[in-house]
Amino acid sequence: MLETAGVVRSRYAFDMVRWLRRGRLQAGVYKFDHPAPVTEVYARIAPRDVVTTSLTVPEGAGTSFDIRRAWSRQDWARARILMAAVASQTGLIADLDPGATSLEGYLFPDTYRFRRHSDARCRW
After folding, report:
1. For residue 83, how far is the Cα from the chain centroid?
2. In a designed cystine with 103, which of 1, 4, 58, 86 is the match (CB 3.0 to 4.6 A)?
3. Of the candidates 56, 119, 62, 109, which has an alpha carbon nearest to the alpha carbon of residue 89?
4. pLDDT tens digit string along 56-92?
5. Which run of H or E residues covers position 119?
6. What's this model's pTM, rounded to 2 decimal places?
């Protein structure tokens, strides 16, 4: 794919660098805006220079409605998916609050980063 997209001149050279460095590559979406030497391309893929999208839970957001409104301004499609998770992933806090009906009150102000094709399902 890198060769076809014009990022590297030779996939064989890239494979040779990967084999010599015995590294693992991180699957993901990467942005390359110019052709580059295979060593540079490898260096970017190996340390997880993955393109992400971010959503911020603003400080002072008291309810899930406030969070949904803030997220809707940032990324409407992802906001809907994540708000569905807020309503359904209560197993994440079962040890803290066994009777919780949502994650409301447990989302902390911060910026959360997601990979392009990630979804809201819990993977812990």
Report:
1. 16
2. 86
3. 119
4. 777 877 677 777 777 777 766 767 777 787 788 888 8
5. none
6. 0.46
